[in-house]
Write a structure and sequence with these properties.
Layout (H helix, E strand, L loop, with lengths): L1 H7 L1 H6 L1 H16 L1 E2 L9 H7 L10 E2 L2 E2 L5 H18 L3 E3 L5 H12 L5 E5 L15 H5 L1 E5 L10 H11 L3 E4 L10 H11 L2 E5 L4 H5 L12 E5 L10 E5 L1 H15 L5 H14 L2 H23 L3 E2 L8 E5 L7 H10 L2 E2 L1 E5 L2 E9 L1 H5 L4 H16 L4 H13 L7
Helix pairs in contact: 4-12, 5-12, 6-11, 8-9, 13-16, 16-17
Bound molecules: pyridoxal-5'-phosphate.
The site of pyridoxal-5'-phosphate has 15 residues, from helix 6.
Length: about 400
Amino acid sequence: MSVTHTLEADVLRRQDPQLADILHGELDRQSTTLQLIAAENFTSPAVLAALGSPLANKYAEGYPGSRYHGGCEMVDVAERLAVERAKDLFGAEHANVQSHSGSSAVLAAYAALLRPGDTVLALGLPYGGHLTHGSPANFSGRWFDFVPYGVDAETGLIDHDQVRTLARTHRPKAIVCGSIAYPRHIDHAFFREVADEVGAYLIADAAHPIGLVAGGAAPSPVPYADIVCATTHKVLRGPRGGMLLCGSDLAERVDRAVFPFTQGGAQMHTVAAKAVAFGEAATPAFAAYAHQVVANARTLAAGLAAQGLVVTTGGTDTHLITADPSPLGVDGRTARLRLAAAGVVLDCCALPHGDVRGLRLGTAAVTTQGMGEEEMVRVAALIARVLRGEGESHTAREEVRELAGGFPPYPR
Ligand SMILES: *Cc1c(COP(=O)(O)O)cnc(C)c1O
């Protein structure tokens, strides 16, 4: 088994016991705590095997059939396979699988469609926009003129009227839809209509829900967006990386925006691992997984609401939940630390109604482990107990250890 093989491989143990201990420690941490970070998952042993393969040695600048390096026969086949599988999986005319990360994919999408100084409409960062959607600390905020839209403070839903008004006023060159914290489906048809009205490109940053799309558990942005950017390591459960999907009309621009404009050599071990992940995501088992992820998130959201947390938008359509823990007497930051001490790992996030920090949770990883709705009910109760400060913290830590122990992410 590749994980145990990698971690217990005599090679690493013998050559570098210090690092072998670190890898073991991390596997132990992942196996004995609850991974509720919405952006994380447990990728498969097959994906890990591709990542740990000799393809990591290969330089391959360019694209299959036209590389700047020799010896690309095998990696060309791997990349063509990844591209074909991505196109089939998402019904896209073109796929680029070389982006090193989700952020690199967004950078490439902007590079393909925009010039520095162009106006872009995107969900503001306080409402769940990503760094690449105009943060002043990021290239996006420095090089483009971002106009933020928001969510309704009461409902937590994207304010469609505001999107339309801002688009008419600012005539952006591109509109970005997609978020790191939006728990509901995005209305791609609406965004397409507004983009068409003002002559803007539509970029869907589907980094989070693309895995649900693959499994048929969320609507696809592919028929609506000019370019879809995504990660391959969130719900999609592949290797850490990015990808872009688009129509044939933009294929060449997108490819040139990735290489040579924003990247050098592709990471061929990662490209191969993406092929493996796309293959897995095309199976009925993955479709069942994606639907279970959503069912689990709905149950967890309902459980948290029943315990007194205020769940943004009242629930979720996806793997992702955001919630305000303050009715239980703690702010988001304190809540995150208390939960971490109990072995429940999640993030803080901004909430629609202003300055209080909330909690962001996701069910992609625990669902991969095999947890179901019964476990989600238990997790919600456990979270509430920890937040209320009921019982000893080591008792909660023991319960988490016992729960996680029943669902090992990797065979030992
Ligand atoms: C995760 C995410 C990204 C960035 O992905 P990285 O691989 O961390 O660079 C970009 N946009 C959105 C909406 C995301 O959720």
